[in-house]
Amino acid sequence: MLGRSLLLVLLVPYALWLVVDYDYHFLDGVNLLFHEAGHVFFGLLGETLGMLGGTLGQLVFPIAAAVHFARSGRTFDACVCGLWLGESVLNVGRYLGDAQAMALPLVGGEIHDWNWLLSKLGLLSSCETLARLVHVLGSGIVLAALGLAFATLAAERARARARGQADRADRLIA
Fold it and tell me: What is the C-alpha to C-alpha distance for residues 70 and 156, in angstroms, rounded to an integer?
């Protein structure tokens, strides 16, 4: 439990940085791999899903990892994956906000996913507003995951204390 407590303490400033001043960083390299893989897999379902597939790909993996840990009863680990999901949503928001300016470097071509998608929907001029909404959503996910991680560790500590008291009482009776 000490290791998870230390990890949680370290995640607090990271989470706050994500919410207040998100910028591309090491975890986005991992997200980029899943993003590009999403284009390949979802591209089998058509052009539009192929273009949206990058974003879907980078969101599916943290969700799948969180579900795996939650089903295994590893709630804290699922919360950390929830924080990863929130960070990935923040990354999507940044990419979305770049749809009109197209200033961010692109991998594998000159097509900007969100420029293409928002142009098709007639929403390209709204990309920055949509990006701010996505940032709020990602921030909410990050903060909720962090809060749930704290609650999970607090509940585990309370259960451990209760077990310790029950063990002491059993020893006194015996």
Answer: 15
Residue 4 near residue 148, CB atoms below 8 Å? no
In 3D space, the residue among 54, 60, 157 whose CA is nearest the CA of residue 112 turns out to be 54
CA dihedral angle for residue 124, residue 130, residue 134, residue 135, rounded to 10 degrees: 110
- What are 68-102's pLDDT values in tens digits? 999 999 999 999 999 999 999 999 999 999 999 99
Contact 84, 62 (CB under 8 A): yes
Q: In this structure, what token pair is assigned to residue 73?
A: 């009863």
Residue 66: CA atoms inside 13 Å, Cβ hemisphere, count? 17
Q: Taking the CA of residue 121 as centre, how many other CA atoms within 13 Å lie in the half-sphere pointing to its CB? A: 15
Residue pair 59/88 in contact by the 8 Å Cβ criterion: yes
